[in-house]
Design a protein that fits this description.
The chain has helices at 8-13, 55-71, 79-95, 97-108, 112-134, 169-182, 196-208, 223-232, 245-257, 282-294, 314-326, 346-362, 395-398, 414-421, 437-446; strands spanning 21-23, 26-28, 35-39, 46-51, 148-156, 159-163, 186-190, 216-218, 238-242, 262-266, 272-275, 306-310, 365-368, 372-373, 381-382, 385-388, 405-411, 426-427, 429-433, 451-454, 469-470, 487-495. By secondary structure, the chain is α/β, with parallel strands linked by helices. The protein has a 7-stranded mixed β-sheet, sandwiched between helices. The chain is globular. Bound molecules: NADP nicotinamide-adenine-dinucleotide phosphate and magnesium ion (MG). Magnesium ion is lined by residues 192, 223.
């Protein structure tokens, strides 16, 4: 069926999500029978009562992951075997793309077209890419003298806890699962409490694809319960986390208080989108700026939330951005024409509106939006919001809002732009628009960001690493570099 011919509203009526955890190859309730409600930000309705995993459930999941790892059916299988299983897994995800897209859209409010055309394909591509990599990795033989043979081999670490957020629930899960599974680890996946349903279905599809039991476990639950239990577990070898800096700090503390597990953090951002007057196409830059703060409701770690505009084109450019944002369609995420859905829940909505109040209080000029909208739906919809006259010291210029709120700051020249751009604790991504080669290269070098885009935004593919400098994180997702997180290096020295 083509996407256009699917009646998503009708599909939503028939939606029966999975509610049980996936542990040791079985679908199970929480040990103590506890549940929590998965609600939809689309209309505030409850979608399911989901198993609320706590310490006892996490213990079971980690034990089953460890058993699977020690048994070796996955960890010591031929890489080509893992490749075949992961390709089957990717294919099953693709075959269930509509169902998974609907699940994501209902649970966290992503417009269905983006869920179907971006989120699910990203997961399929990620699983496929790492499946294909599995049997093409090489180890190393350094050139020792004639009296010895040394080998540097990469061994899977063992049990990986993947703790992920709700904004791209399946893409983020895939970025951890792909490399971790490809090299033979067992994984315990903890989805965000706002997006457990897509992860549970994913765990079930992994079983259907033939991944041995215990190789992929999914433990839905609350962060301070299931998440903390994973972070403190003495038999978890690596935590791969995407989320807020606050929780990232907790995970480092848990590791210090327990077994010193390795903790990799993919955290927030405050992406500067820097537009010079000599940009090759200012209209395209404006349309991209509008997209960059409203795509996924601005709930994106790389959201282009700081727009730095060179003073001589500032007013014209801002009016183009305002027009472009206004023309983006906000509404029911199940309408295929919708481009902006609700934010993930009422807590997030309040957080966004609090920042609007802070911006007004700080003296920024509110040029668009700033309020709640579509109240009759029962959903959590926020108007896209634009502030101009923002100063670098304002909180709305420094803190991650994680919603559709744009802060516009003028700048004079290249050094001024770099100074403002680098003046946050974050360093995830940055974007520069100019036709001048020297400006582009100088900016790319000077920007403290894990990714710099020139005359584009949010581009890339699986071959390039993704992650942040400064307080945007440690380690990288995507690319062959991500594999480093999930292996230990072993030296074997043989006297000859
Ligand atoms: P979050 O609140 O930090 O939660 C992330 C995950 O951690 C969730 O599964 C959460 O579970 C869990 N968690 C919460 N408290 C925990 C604890 N004490 N111990 C262990 N785990 C705990 O982040 P979020 O609100 O879901 O996502 C938004 C954040 O993610 C933003 O800061 C965004 O920038 C960041 N992000 C970064 C990237 C990147 O690649 N750099 C990509 C996407 C998002 P609960 O949901 O149950 O609380
Ligand atoms: Mg949370």
């Amino acid at each position: 069926m083509t996407q256009a011919s699917i009646d998503w509203h009708e599909s939503a009526e028939r939606f029966h999500p999975r509610q049980q955890a996936v542990i040791g190859g079985e679908l199970v309730d929480a040990v103590d029978g506890a549940t929590f409600s998965a609600t939809s930000p689309r209309d505030g309705t409850v979608l399911a009562e989901v198993a609320a995993c706590r310490t006892a459930d996490v213990d079971r999941a980690v034990a089953s992951a460890r058993r699977a790892f020690d048994a070796g059916h996955w960890s010591r299988s031929a890489p080509a075997e893992r490749r075949r299983s992961m390709l089957r897994f990717a294919r099953l995800v693709e075959e269930h793309a509509d169902e998974l897209a609907l699940t994501v859209s209902l649970e966290m409010g992503k417009p269905i077209s983006d869920a179907r055309d971006i989120e699910i394909p990203a997961l399929v591509k990620t699983l496929t890419w790492y499946a294909e990599a599995a049997d093409k990795l090489l180890d190393e033989l350094p050139r020792t003298g004639a009296d010895a043979l040394a080998m540097i081999t990469r061994e899977p670490v063992g049990v990986v806890a993947a703790i992920v957020p709700w904004n791209f629930p399946l893409t983020m899960a895939g970025w951890k699962l792909g490399p971790a599974l490809a090299v033979g680890n067992s994984v315990v996946l903890k989805p965000a409490e706002q997006s457990p349903l897509s992860a549970l279905r994913l765990g079930e599809l992994a079983l259907e694809a033939g991944l041995p039991e215990g190789v992929l476990n999914v433990v839905p639950g609350l962060g301070h319960e299931a998440g903390q239990a994973l972070g403190r577990h003495d038999d978890v070898d690596v935590v791969a986390f995407t989320g807020s800096g606050e929780v990232g700090r907790e995970l480092l503390r848990y590791a210090a208080d327990s077994n010193l597990k390795r903790v990799y953090l993919e955290l927030g951002g405050k992406t500067p989108n820097i537009v010079f007057g000599d940009a090759p196409d200012l209209a395209e830059a404006a349309a991209t700026a509008a997209w960059g703060i409203t795509f996924n409701q601005g709930e994106m770690c790389t959201a282009a939330s700081r727009l730095l505009v060179q003073r001589d084109v500032h007013d014209d450019f801002v009016s183009q951005v305002l027009d472009a944002i206004t023309s983006r369609r906000l509404g029911d995420p199940l309408d295929t024409a919708t481009q902006i859905g609700p934010v993930v829940d009422e807590t997030q909505l309040r957080r966004v509106l609090d920042y609007v109040a802070i911006g007004l209080d700080e003296g920024a000029d509110l040029r668009l939006g700033g309020g709640r909208t579509l109240p009759d739906t029962g959903g959590s919809y926020v108007e896209p919001t634009v502030f101009t006259g923002v100063r670098p010291d304002m909180r709305i210029a420094r803190e991650e809002i994680f919603g559709p709120v744009l802060s516009v700051l003028p700048f004079d020249d290249l050094p001024d732009a770099i100074r403002i751009a680098n003046d946050t604790v974050y360093g995830l991504a940055a974007s520069v628009w100019t036709r001048d080669l020297t400006t582009a290269h100088t900016a790319a070098r000077a920007l403290r960001a894990g990714t710099v885009w020139v005359n584009c935004f949010e581009e890339g593919d699986l071959s390039v690493p993704f992650g942040g400098m400064k307080q945007s994180g440690t380690g990288r997702d995507k690319s062959l570099h991500a594999i480093d997180k999930y292996v230990d290096l072993k030296t074997t020295w043989i006297a000859l």
